[in-house]
Specification:
- Strands 3-2-1-4-5 form a 5-stranded mixed beta sheet, sandwiched between helices.
- It has one domain: Nucleotidyltransferase, domain 5.
- α2 packs across α6.
- It is built from 8 helices and 5 strands, in the order αββαβααββαααα.
- The radius of gyration is 18 Å and the shape is globular.
Length: 208
């Protein structure tokens, strides 16, 4: 299988400053109509390179599933956190995404000395951090986190599909595809849909 890899340069630069454990953190599910937002934090062994670790969006499902156990095997430690739709509705998706990433980082044992974050600064972290724009393509640690988060969330969405197959969660994973929107228009929102995120085209057509 041909894989397009991210770089370890950012992590190596930070290690040269004296930080032993450098974590990457990322989230998935921010733009979905249904399901949780999931974040992962990963600290990779500096001498265990997983070939092909890349932004999860650049990989197909088979590659992500293949890389998942390789990343875990190469990790000093890793953690996944999940924020459910009702909590997303209560605090909004931006805060939920930050909270998921915070919980993932704080769940690492021991805590890392430095955190590389995809895109955003996480308020309240007790260690040094650097937000990296496009981090899931630039940093192996962030890319690894994106894969763990994506695989975890995809599996959860398949479980939700098994409970209620009307919406096709196994296909679109909660994103606003045409068939998902059609199903919402036909059946209304399910308990796992986010009430605070409704496409304008469906404002007048979605039954509660």
């Amino acid at each position: 299988m041909t894989r397009r890899g991210a770089s370890r340069a950012l992590e190596n630069d930070i290690r040269r400053l004296g930080y032993v454990h450098v974590a990457g953190v990322d989230e998935v599910g921010r733009g979905c109509l249904a399901g949780p937002v999931v974040a992962a934090a990963v600290v990779l062994h500096c001498d265990r390179y997983v070939q092909g670790v890349a932004d999860s969006k650049l990989l197909d499902a088979v590659d992500r599933e293949s890389l998942y156990p390789e990343i875990i095997a190469a990790a000093v430690h890793w953690q996944v956190s999940i924020i459910e739709p009702d909590e997303i509705d209560r605090i909004n998706i931006h805060k939920a995404s930050l909270r998921a990433m915070e919980l993932a980082v704080l769940g690492l044992e021991p805590l890392p000395g430095f955190v590389l974050v995809d895109g955003f600064r996480i308020p309240g972290l007790p260690m040094a951090q650097r937000p990296v724009i496009g981090g899931d393509r630039r940093s192996t640690a962030i890319a690894a986190a994106s894969i763990l988060a994506k695989v975890t969330r995809d599996r959860l969405m398949c479980e939700l599909h098994a409970r209620d197959p009307r919406y096709g969660f196994d296909r679109h994973k909660g994103y606003a595809t045409r068939d998902h929107l059609d199903a919402v228009g036909r059946y209304g929102y399910s308990p796992v849909h986010r009430r605070t995120f409704r496409p304008p085209s469906l404002f007048d057509t979605i039954p509660d």
